[in-house]
Amino acid sequence: MRCDLNGTVSLVTGAARGIGQAIADRLAANGSTVYYTDLEAGQAEAAAAKTPTGRGLKLDVTDPAAIASVIRQIADAHGRLDLVVNNAGINTAGDRKPIDGYSRADWDRILAVDLTAVYEVNKAAAGMMRAQGRGRIVNIASIAGLVPLRLQSAYVAAKAGVVNLTKSMALELGPHGILVNGIAPGSILTVGTRQLFYGDGGEYSETARRLLDHVPLGRPGTPDEIAVAALFLADPENTYVNGHILVVDGGWTAGYTRDF
Q1: How large a percentage of the chain has pLDDT more than 90?
Q2: Helix, strand or coil, per DSSP, at residue 229
Q3: Fewest C-beta atoms under 10 Å: which of 34, 113, 247, 257?
């Protein structure tokens, strides 16, 4: 997929690897000047250096002062910000527990990154976009925010919050020329999820087989498949999609595929 993003300026959070990097790479390949931001500054700079229009910056999305500083740098350098993609996110690693065993520390940590940070980045960016009378915002949610999953209450709550925050912002900012949409990925194969899907011999693990039994396409998605969805929402010719959550899950949430 190709679109003309020449002359635009984009900001992607969590862009040092995985879905965030794939989105930033797609935007840059289509002509946008892209700020690859991440808590890992070196990795963000390395990812950005692979593209002619990429620029890497350190950004802790839980720090409002750091967010304001990055937005100010972009404003000083370009006088505009056309697209923000809120991708940075975390979840519990492998020790997932029911609500009565879920720790407050994990709850606070995940909500801070997956929901509150989305609010903070959008708050900072929206003021600039409102002043210029245009802009695009894409929030990366999850199917877990649409169809609740077990044993990860903080992640589910945060992503459900992102879904409705996206729709609320679309209502507020649409009249000012700002389109706000979200993407809800299903199971995506990244470095972080590779151990979930593959056993030591390179074959699908039993856990992965049970998971993929619910996916009609029978495989996990790739970061680039999410990036294509983000590029569609960023396309200047896409002018009437607002307040939408684009589900990219191989059909997982369409219903059960097993025979009963």
Answers
A1: 83
A2: helix
A3: 257
| pLDDT above 60 (res 202) | no
Q: For residue 113, give every residue at least 6 positions away whose Cβ sits within 8 Å of its Cβ, in sequence order, or none.
A: 61, 62, 88, 89, 90
- pTM (predicted TM-score): 0.94
- Residue 210 pLDDT: 76
Residues 6 or more apart whose CB falls under 8 angstroms from that of 110 comprise 90, 91, 92, 154, 155, 158
Domain 9-186+224-248 belongs in CATH node 3.40.50.2300: no
Average pLDDT value over all residues in the chain: 93
Report the distance separating Cα 91 and Cα 192, nearest Å. 11
Radius of gyration of the chain (CA): 18
**Residue 163: both structure tokens together:** 């879904």
DSSP code, position 246: E
Structure tokens at 122: 């959008």
Residue type at position 170: A
Spot the catalytic one: 119, 155, 198, 204.
155
155 is catalytic: yes
The stretch 145-150 carries a mean pLDDT of 92
Asked if the model's pLDDT at residue 20 lies above 80, the reply is yes
Give me the pLDDT at residue 42, please. Answer: 98
Q: Are strands 54-58 and 9-13 parallel, antiparallel or unpaired?
A: unpaired
Residue 169 in contact with residue 234, Cβ under 8 Å?
Answer: no
Residue 34 structure tokens: 């892209």
CATH 3.40.50.720 placement within the chain: 9-186+224-248
What's the CA gap between 242 and 202, in Å, rounded? 41
